Amino acid sequence: MFYSPHNEYIKPSAEVMLVGITPGWQQMEIAFRTAIKALKDQQSFEHACKEAKFAARMAGTMRANLVHMLQEIGLHHYLSVPHVQRLFEPECPILHTTSLIRFPIFVDQQNYNGHLPSIRENTFLYHAVLGSFLPEVNQLNHPLIIPLGKSVEAVLRQLLDEGRIKEERILWGFPHPSGANGHRVKQFENSKAGMQDILRSMFKF
Q: What CATH number should be reported for the domain whose range is 14-23+59-203?
């Protein structure tokens, strides 16, 4: 586990919470580079973390895939924004992005994929979830939680079983948007209608 500054910034006003597994190397590098520049410009630590957050969140092809899928299920209609891309603009108060594990995890010098080892079966990793994700989600006012991929869903279901979170606003079935997820398109097509039903029931459309 390595430190990265971008998940230090939390947006309590957010209505949507995107939850990944853990930041990857690319996010970590962007976050450090952005925060260092802000600090050199005499900005506060809080401002540096905020700048790092906006620059690094879901960076790279993952963001493009994410925006496409969120647009396809019509999330923008329920949030009254013209396009999902609007959520990722720094001044937009609606979106908060985070990870189950706040700081980057690497296994054999590779980005941790959430499987080996399993978060739920590894004491160190699961305690990291309890120590970072739970306090964070409690700072938001009942946001729509979108777990990105099956690994995140599995952990959320365990948290539900243990009574640590409530299911009332979780969008199940969203694939992990990484380009390395070769099953992303098929998974999305299979779960698209179900996710749209969940959104309609949540927002009473």
A: 3.40.470
